[in-house]
Design a protein that fits this description.
Elements (H helix, E strand, L loop, with lengths): L3 H5 L8 H20 L1 H8 L5 H22 L10 H22 L5 H22 L6 H21 L7 H22 L5 H11 L1 H14 L6 H29 L1 H6 L4 H13 L6 H18 L3
Amino acid sequence: MRTQSSAIAPIGIAVSGRSGNSIGTLQAALGVAAFSLTFPATAWGLESFGPWSLVAVRSVLAALIAGSCLLALRVPLPARRHWAGLAVVAAGVVLGFPLLTSLALRTSTTAHAAVVVGLLPLTTALFSALRVGTRPSRTFWVAALVGAAAVVAFTVQQSGGTLTSADLYLFGALLVCAAGYTEGGRLARVMPGWQVVGWALVLCLPLSVPATVVALSYEPVQLTWHGVTGLLWVAAGSQFLGLVVWYRGMAAIGIPKASQLQLAQPLLTLVWSVLLLGEHLTVAAPLTAAAVLVCIAVTQRARG
């Protein structure tokens, strides 16, 4: 059985001081960049698949990628004490968030759905304070609240200020994802982040495989270039590779600070929405971007 020190060593966060923080920030930022494509890719995927089929198939494909890596590297099973945490990651990040946002995106634009990830950093920090015991400074919380408020105001304005039935799905997705991020960030301190993601995906296979069979039998499939591309991205990019670097970044710089980098995610998503989906933005975008970047800078410098 591996000792805790041997489990930590492969994470690649042994670099101390400013260099280690820079690497961790870069990894978390790469995760945010990958996640920013999730909503546009999901919108593409829904052109070919129903919401239940899309989530089930993406989970199976991501699990096959992760399982292949685990088998190839002969990674031993996690310790029994970690399985409960992995179940939380699986329920929140692998199944809950993709399903609820896919259901929401049937009637919501990606701009409106971006309000979820706008609130996610603050919610993740709250979950972290409750679960891990982190205590960020008052400056941190003020900057986080201001940044979240700016993102919420922008995304609500983009949607015309009207709340839809999709909001229930979106707020549910916000809660389950924040719980999964927090638990995944905690586990990434004692095992490599990619293994946290990999085992969570594999843990879902007994559910995702039969769900795929049932969903595909009930929901019609019309394969298009957009649909297949969207499916492949949410499976390989959002569901696996993005989570790998994201959890490594959280383990390196801490859950609250890493979560605040996600304040930039809605704005990145809106950029992709214009380029990939042809959605139109207002002149409020650059003003919001500037406000969010200032808040990110403050939260990254604030000490807990």
